[in-house]
From TrEMBL:
Belongs to the protein kinase superfamily. Ser/Thr protein kinase family. GCN2 subfamily. Gene3D superfamilies: Phosphorylase Kinase, domain 1, Regulator of chromosome condensation 1/beta-lactamase-inhibitor protein II, Transferase(Phosphotransferase) domain 1. This is Protein kinase domain-containing protein. It comes from Oppiella nova. The keyword Transport does not apply. ATP binds at K236. It holds the Pfam family RCC1_2. InterPro entries: CC_SR_Kinase, Kinase-like_dom_sf, Prot_kinase_dom, Protein_kinase_ATP_BS, RCC1/BLIP-II, Reg_chr_condens, Ser/Thr_kinase_AS. It comes from the Eukaryota. PROSITE patterns: PROTEIN_KINASE_ATP (PS00107), PROTEIN_KINASE_DOM (PS50011), PROTEIN_KINASE_ST (PS00108), RCC1_3 (PS50012). Keywords: ATP-binding, Kinase, Nucleotide-binding, Serine/threonine-protein kinase, Transferase. Residues 206-418 form the Protein kinase domain. GO terms for molecular function: ATP binding; protein serine/threonine kinase activity. RCC repeats lie at residues 52-108, 109-162.
Amino acid sequence: MVYGLGSNYWGSLGLGHNLYVNEIQVIDRLCHKNITQFFNGYDFVLALTRHNVLYGWGYNDCGQLGMAHKSSDHLYAEPVPFDPKFIGNKSINQISCGYYHIMILTSDGCVYGWGDNMFGQLGCGPDSDIQNRETFRVNFNPNHEIKSIYCSEYSSFAITSNGQVFSCGRNDWCNLGHNSSDNIWEPQLIGYMTVVSDVSQYKRLYEDLQSLGSGAFGEIFVVKHKYEGREYAVKKIIFEDNQNLLECYEEMIKLIKVRSEYCVQYMRQWNDEKVYYIQMELCSHSLHNILQHKPQVFGRQPGEPMNSMEFYISCHIFKEILECVQYLHELNPQIIHKDLKPDNILVAKNVRNGRYLKVADFGLALLHSRSSGSHTTGVGTLQYMAPEVRLQTKYTPKADIYSLAVIAHKLFNLNNLT
């Protein structure tokens, strides 16, 4: 639930009007959107959800909401979603607001801005036609990896991975760190500030609780978001090749859009230095745990056949697994998992619609094959891997069917059939 009260002159409470509110009110238009953070400008508000959807509302006379005017009064009293195509459909890592402008840092290190550019605070030069409410990508030298951004009233700052600081915008009082009082229209390096440190986004936002395990492709941690209080799973993968990293970003953008009760939800991605992070929904257990404890739960000794109750439960488990894989295969474009195994079939922490199981790591085989020290032949677990995947030949969805057959062999204890 989302609540608000106070001055609402610019419609900044998102209630659909701009009347003063002196008692706490539920803001219906913002409820159940899984909002994680709010960002306030002078006369507008932005909100970012768990699914990386950005909403804006309030005044829009300078295009500070990132959209064209809908009417002459420039007022948006209800939340409106920002179109992610203007930032290349990328995940958002950081947002900062000035009085009437916004800067966004995306997961691949690009900086975008929109809104008022009267003093050069968007860093896009004095000749940019900002009146058409376009979103501008701020052009930094490709040798500079931007790690953090910050906006003040009429100026903007960016910190690189090696501690250098750039600034642009209003500079009447030499407040941008340059030996001049002229406005700075494009990001300029503050020459004497070369050792500014910035805490990594991961350490700033998350607290490690425990490791869920590691393998050839990285390590998964249970983490707690320091501001939300929620727990997530975060996978860390080390990359040495920037080109491979960019390709994986593009791949993950597609996977983050998959929203289903059949799949573990990918929420966002980002990188710090050479470490690539994937934030995911946290699940409670895996099919691997179920297979370990199922005989004891049903009182079955080694070599004994299943009783009818265990067989019935096993059938229901396998039915849910089949439905998960069918969902992936029916997507457009189709997703072939390529690494189905008990460790990648998880039990949901919050059960919905009577479904317990979800597939994880779907679509990550491509990403894994590009990570440091890994090869396509090492993607997946050999015991469950179809021969065509293992041999790096052309494969189809039937590769997943092979893996399902091996899982069924384990689930129904077929080794003991005579």
